[in-house]
């Protein structure tokens, strides 16, 4: 094999490696997002336990507990959707890594065995890139859920602040 051909083969094998690196970065980022979802679920579970054990001595406390329970229920529902999207995104990124590694190996094998067919390499690379794209789409969807959940929580906090402002004004 002439030196120029070896360089071309190595270049063809390295190209998927760049996408593998990008996939690895997305796996790390997505894993961090999963950790944040898990942490948030634990906080909501603790809040729910505190609500359950708190006494409802007044009508205002009971109403506030009901509003908090509704928020927790909505948050947990969104977190479940986020967790499923993140799991699917991770699976897509791992699949992308596997397909891209396979395409890189296929380039080396095809060159070593002097095969003239290229469709296996192209097919593996396209499938790997497609899996990478699909995982990215799932992350965008998960991000929309995360933002919606945050906006919902902000609305709840605004209600608390307004209620506290109203009671502080009534006390003066």
Give a written overview of the molecule.
By secondary structure, the chain is mainly α. It has one domain (3-171). The chain is built from 3 helices and no strands. The chain has helices at residues 3-53, 59-112, 119-171.
Measured between the Cα atoms of the first and last residue, the distance is: 90 Å
Count of helices?
Answer: 3
Beta content: under 5%
The H/E string reads HHH
Mean pLDDT: 84
Q: What's the alpha carbon Rg, rounded to whole Å? A: 26 Å
Task: List the keywords.
single chain; 172 residues; mainly alpha; rod-shaped
The gist of it:
By secondary structure, this protein is mainly α. It is built from three helices and no strands. It has one domain.
